[in-house]
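Researcher: Please predict.
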Amino acid sequence: MEVAIQFVNIPTSEALETYTKGKLENLEKKYEDIINVTVFFKRENSPKKLGRICEMELSLAGSRIFASSNKKNYELAVKQTISDLEKQLKKRKGVLKPYM
């Protein structure tokens, strides 16, 4: 699995990259058909919102899955985004299983 991490209008962080890659490795152990992952970290400048956005796009054989979350820090955003991706992967796996 290839992982591409992009920081949009914020400074890069080695610690955040390492944390994200570790979480994605755990996801890859459960679902081997993941080809690559593109991760975007953004900051929202609205005072009403939480402001730390994490977006992930998984490329699988035949389709792509996207999830995004907005939390008070990037670690929580990564956890929530991966949780949303896992739900989508479980749903997709359940749909594909009966036809195999």
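Model: Residues 2-99 form a domain with the Double Stranded RNA Binding Domain fold (CATH 3.30.160.100).
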